[in-house]
Amino acid sequence: MDMSGCKSRFTLKLETLKRRYSVFEEHINEFLRTLQIVLPKGQETILNLSGIIRLHSYLLTSEGVGSGVRTDLVREYLAIVNNIRLYLENFREECDELLSDSETDDLDSDHSGKIVKCLIENVEDMLQVDHVFEEDTTVLDRKLSSYEQTFCGMLCYVPLLCEKLSTVLHTLPTNGSPKGDS
97: domain range? Predict the structure, then answer.
């Protein structure tokens, strides 16, 4: 497998992840309403994945949560994030192998490889459960309502991860050929 084949395959996988999130977004109001219902008194927002995981655990163990609560949507949000984590793990393994197998005579390719590794580390940091969500509305396709503003960082999280993964894919060197293939 060469770098351009790797890039094409992972681009398709990323598009699949984006489509899955788009389907999820169709239910965003119900998702936010569920979170609003189970947020502890005095807590106005969710700062990181750890907060969502805590609320999901509460939903699963609490009997008296009430109607209008969509546990499935909270689970789906976490599943999407987990799929991004698995995508990144697979990508990193394959990318590390291809970058280490490529000709190191090409300084541009070597430089691109270092940038790619740095970008991957940035996304891995974002996937840590205690990483504070960033509020970057430039990654959203729409304006947030005042109700959604409360959850701005969380709503930007998956689109921001996807945007950063797209940047990683665009930064991949495409001219690196495995050793011995010249």
Answer: 3-171
Count the domains in the chain: 1
Q: Could you tell me which residues come within 8 angstroms of residue 182 by beta carbon, excluding any fewer than 6 positions away?
A: 103
Report how far residue 176's alpha carbon sits from residue 94's, in angstroms, rounded to the nearest whole number. Answer: 14
**Sequential pLDDT tens for the chain (182 residues):** 577 888 889 999 999 999 999 999 999 999 999 998 888 888 888 999 999 999 999 888 887 766 668 889 999 999 999 999 999 999 988 887 777 765 545 555 667 778 888 889 999 999 999 999 999 988 988 888 888 888 999 999 999 999 999 999 888 876 544 444 43
Q: pTM for the whole thing? A: 0.86
Q: Is residue 178 part of a domain?
A: no
CA distances from 95 to 14, 86, 107, 165 (A): 15, 14, 17, 13
